[in-house]
Amino acid sequence: MTRDICVVVPTIREYECVRAYAENAREHGFDLDRLHFVLVTEDFCETDAMARMLDEEGLSGEVFDGSARERWYREQGIAEYEHVVPAASHAETSFGLLYLWAGDFEYGVFIDDDTLPHPDCDFFGRHLRNLAFEGEVTSVRSDERWGNVLYQNADEHGLYPRGYPYSAMDETVETETAYVNDVVASQGLWTNVPDLDAVRILMDGDLQGQARTRLDADDYGEDFVASEGQYLTVCSMNLAFRREVVPAFYQLPMDDNPWDVGRFDDIWSGV
Questions:
Q1: How do residues 26-70 score in pLDDT, each as one tens digit?
Q2: 43-50 contact pairs (CB < 8 A, 24+)
Q3: I need a surface site. Which of 12, 63, 194, 245 has the fewest CB within 10 A?
Q4: 211-226: pLDDT as tens digits
Q5: Would residue 207 be called left, alpha or beta, if left means φ above 0 and alpha means ψ between -120 and 50 degrees?
């Protein structure tokens, strides 16, 4: 099988999560030979241990700290543009997009290092089936032109994901059945701690900075797509996409301000 999927994992913490995703692929019969892992990290991190982990798991992959990224930029003849991918922020995920493009991979997968796959869910297989899907599916729209990806149980938990505009809250949701045959991105959701912004965490939060509300699989119903002309928040924690939409997921440098704060770089990609 051709190695056609580039799995990008930005990490300065729990890089061992890769073992769980590899085990999930084995358990569900997904061909690991299709996967190439790119760990995007920093010079102060355990790069040797990361490389050993890939070897121990029998995974194809590379580890890129800041120095390795600089060398890669020079080898590709694009060193003058390396500043467009910030270091030491989640936006360094964009290095994986460049690597994917240069390597002619057909698909990309983003994984955050503080996530784990559900054992009973075929993580990679489900994403790839979503991207290949042709048929009828629920299509969602609202009068605000924004869809809440947590809408299916919103009457109970009242949550909106990080990145959802405050002005578009209290929207009226409409659903219909639509035929689709051109899926370019598969956005996975997650259970336990929901991904909320700072204001909503304060409203529904604890002293550790996490929402008190917890989500489980029952909070998510059937798959759905955004209707034409509608926006969805897209998070790069659990995302698969086709090569053709790589530019949509570039994460802009967001720290060009007096405080050098850039903690919302992964929210607005593609908008």
A1: 999 999 999 999 999 999 999 999 999 999 999 999 999 999 999
A2: 43/67, 44/12, 45/11, 45/12, 45/15, 46/15, 49/15, 50/11, 50/15
A3: 245
A4: 678 888 888 888 999 9
A5: alpha
Q: Counting Cβ atoms within 10 Å, is residue 197 exposed (0-12), middle (13-18) or buried (19+)?
A: middle
Query: Is 36 among the domain residues?
Result: yes
Nearby residues of 155 by Cβ (< 8 Å), 6 or more positions away: none
Q: Note down the domain range covering 89.
A: 5-128+239-249
The backbone torsions φ and ψ at residue 36, rounded to the nearest 5 degrees and listed phi first, read -130, 120
Residue 256 lies in a domain: no
Rounded to two decimals, the pTM is: 0.91
Q: Are residues 85 and 186 in the same domain?
A: no
- Amino acid present at 85: V
Number of folded domains in the chain?
A: 2
| Same domain membership, residue 138 and residue 120 | no
The one-character DSSP state at 237 is T
CA distance 74 to 80: 9
In the Cβ-directed half-sphere of 116, how many Cα atoms lie within 13 Å?
A: 11
Vertex 195 angle, CA 193 and 198, to 5°: 110
What amino acid is encoded at 245 in this protein?
V
Structure confidence by residue, pLDDT tens digits, 179-235: 999 999 999 988 888 877 777 777 777 777 666 788 888 888 889 999 999 998 888
- What is the per-residue pLDDT for 255? 65
